[in-house]
Inverse folding.
């Protein structure tokens, strides 16, 4: 395709006007640029730096604080005037402390020559010199010694100990026992006496070393159960026979066995109760009425978790074992066979000869006559038996000629 200026003028007839308009626009842009140059350069630079930050949300940098300029000194400071030549010369003053005070000098002179004491009169009493008082050692050195010698503070009393007062029992507390091995216990007491509701006292002989809970249960058993039983028998309880309380050993005294509750001060072996009338309730004696022993059995099994007596294991045939051993689901063991009283047996020795009996000689003769009569009576049956045998022999043996009859066996079922 060919083009020329003529063709162009033909195609755009207003080309001259377009060039003029372009020149005007260039002139306007130039003027605007000149106007923008008159803006403060610092403001223009700050605006150009933050242009992209404004577009993308970047924070603007904080301007640095300008250092403060020192205040300008006055242009001229007045100088001091020169000293005149005829001015008097002044000497520098000395410090007052360097000059000693006259009063101090007199005091020092008096101290240098103290006055002598007056001579002691001849009739003055003789006084002994006072001994210096011993200074106590500092408190800091006493504390370690006190801590080394003083025992640890005892724990506060338990609820059982507070309830076991002198009004119901005489049971002083004793220190805890620890060892050997598993033996020992805490909150221990020495049960010496049980005080009944009517102020009578039941002695525990010998005194039992028990845990407070076990001692409290023994006290309630005597006060609530045994005292009414003794009253029904027409007397009162006076003593409790203690066979064994605390003893570090295995069960049934067997070496190597499991630890017994006696080794934990949680068991008591009792034999009987002594009454004020002189009688006693022996728990294993068959001579004691069965009803009384059964009443004791029921009271023990209701209070203690373990009761072992005659018929239990062969080790408690002559006493009763009581303890408060804890088991799963509060399981209790009560094994005590209350045997019936023994039957009365005839005496082995003959009875004594009564006074109205005849002399020995007459008795011997009468005994001989009786023996002869007995012999004659015995001979008569023998003769009768012999005659009967002869009559049987004279008769023909009819049974021997008969054939034997076979008997049928009968099955007996039981």
């Amino acid at each position: 395709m060919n083009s020329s200026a003529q063709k162009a003028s033909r195609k755009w007839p207003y080309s001259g006007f377009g060039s003029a308009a372009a020149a005007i626009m260039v002139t306007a842009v130039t003027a605007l640029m000149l106007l923008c140059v008159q803006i403060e350069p610092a403001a223009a630079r700050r605006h150009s730096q933050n242009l992209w930050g404004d577009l993308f949300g970047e924070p603007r940098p904080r301007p640095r604080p300008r250092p403060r300029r020192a205040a300008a000194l006055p242009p001229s400071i007045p100088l001091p005037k020169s000293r005149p030549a005829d001015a008097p010369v002044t000497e520098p003053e000395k410090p007052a402390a360097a000059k000693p005070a006259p009063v101090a000098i007199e005091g020092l002179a008096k101290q240098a020559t103290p006055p002598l004491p007056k001579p002691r009169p001849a009739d003055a009493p003789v006084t002994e010199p006072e001994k210096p008082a011993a200074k106590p050692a500092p408190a800091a050195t006493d504390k370690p010694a006190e801590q080394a010698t003083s025992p640890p503070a005892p724990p506060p009393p338990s609820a059982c100990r507070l309830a076991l007062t002198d009004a119901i029992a005489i049971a002083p507390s004793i220190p805890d026992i620890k060892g050997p091995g598993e033996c020992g216990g805490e909150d221990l007491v020495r049960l010496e006496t049980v005080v009944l509701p009517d102020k009578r006292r039941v002695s525990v002989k010998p005194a039992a070393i028990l845990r407070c809970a076990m001692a409290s249960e023994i006290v309630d058993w005597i006060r609530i159960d045994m005292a009414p039983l003794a009253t029904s028998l027409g007397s009162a309880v006076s003593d409790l026979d203690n066979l064994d309380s605390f003893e570090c050993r295995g069960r049934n005294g067997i070496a190597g066995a499991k630890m017994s509750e006696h080794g934990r001060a949680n068991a008591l072996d009792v034999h009987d109760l002594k009454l004020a009338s002189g009688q006693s309730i022996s728990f294993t004696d068959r001579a004691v009425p069965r009803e009384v022993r059964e009443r004791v059995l029921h009271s023990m099994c209701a209070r203690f978790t373990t009761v072992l007596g005659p018929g239990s294991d062969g080790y408690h045939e002559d006493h009763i074992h009581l303890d408060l051993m804890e088991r799963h689901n509060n399981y209790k063991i009560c094994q005590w066979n209350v045997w019936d009283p023994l039957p009365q047996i005839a005496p082995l020795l003959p009875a004594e000869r009564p006074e109205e009996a005849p002399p020995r000689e007459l008795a011997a003769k009468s005994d001989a006559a009786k023996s002869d009569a007995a012999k004659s009576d015995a001979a008569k049956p023998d003769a009768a038996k012999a005659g009967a045998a002869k009559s049987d022999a004279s008769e023909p043996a009819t049974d021997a000629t008969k054939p034997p009859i076979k008997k049928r066996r009968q099955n007996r079922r039981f």
